[in-house]
Amino acid sequence: ADTIAAEDTRVTRKLLSHYDIHTPLIAYHQHSAMERSEEIVEILRAGKNVALVSDAGTPGISDPGHELIALCIAEGVRIEPIPGPTAIIAALVVSGVSTTRFAFDGFPPRKEGERTAFFQSLRRDTRTLCLYESPSRLIKTLTSMLEVLGNRRVAVVREATKLFEEVFRGPVSEALERFSEQRVRGEIVIVVEGCTADETESAPSEQSVRDRLSELIESGLSERDAVRQCVIEFRLPKRQVYAEALKLKDDRER
Fold first, then answer.
1. Which secondary structure element, helix H or strand E, spans residue 239, and what is its range?
2. CA-to-CA distance for 209 and 196, rounded, in angstroms?
3. How far is 157 from 167, CA to CA, in rounded Å?
4. How far are the Cα atoms of 113, 127, 215 from residue 100, in angstroms, in the given order?
5. pLDDT tens profile 37-80
6. Contact status, residue 109 vs residue 163, Cβ threshold 8 Å
7. Dist. CA 11–CA 124, nearest whole Å
8. What is the pTM of this model?
9. Beta-strand (E) ranges in the chain?
10. How many other CB atoms are there within 10 angstroms of residue 166's CB atom?
């Protein structure tokens, strides 16, 4: 290559130094993608080759690159993809969850309401679901997942292929317990099993949810714990079960 466009020139320079490569570097990251894309296409029009690299993973997969690739296609510039590392596939393979059909949905939304809606839209998807997540939001995402998708089987893969690689496999509830007890660091992939045949059956009736809530409360559980248990058992959104709990409470007070 005549030029290397790097997500972080400091990181890429370490690799180049190791192999004694002295090709000129330019920065290409999320904040400069559109502006740099025009400059890079000009270099390509001049008949030169540009290599696009990212810090970890593959350019264009939750890393900078899509804008440049789209612009090159529009300009008729030839693109040569070189297979490289991607945490999605590494995590999927090691997860133990079905790999027959899977979908990658990037990072879940940051806000709770949007995150809940995000998982609700995926409740009936039978494909294995792969997600990226940051350490600071892992617990919130697992909590939303448990409330909306139920206690599905998951694999939480942290720092895949790196020195401190960790793979957790088990139900969402156990993942929550596991990662609530430690400070989570590094890059994370969550692999979630898809909707099963049992889940695609008709949703439980409102009366059946209220009956179960009543049964749990009478057994000694608090309303909050009864709601949480029904969310897991019926695989319903928390707000829906809570609404039935309010109706049950109104009926008892009459």
1. helix 238-253
2. 20
3. 5
4. 31, 8, 40
5. 999 999 999 999 999 999 888 998 888 899 999 999 999 999 99
6. no
7. 41
8. 0.73
9. 3-6, 25-27, 50-53, 102-104, 128-133, 153-158, 166-171, 188-192
10. 17
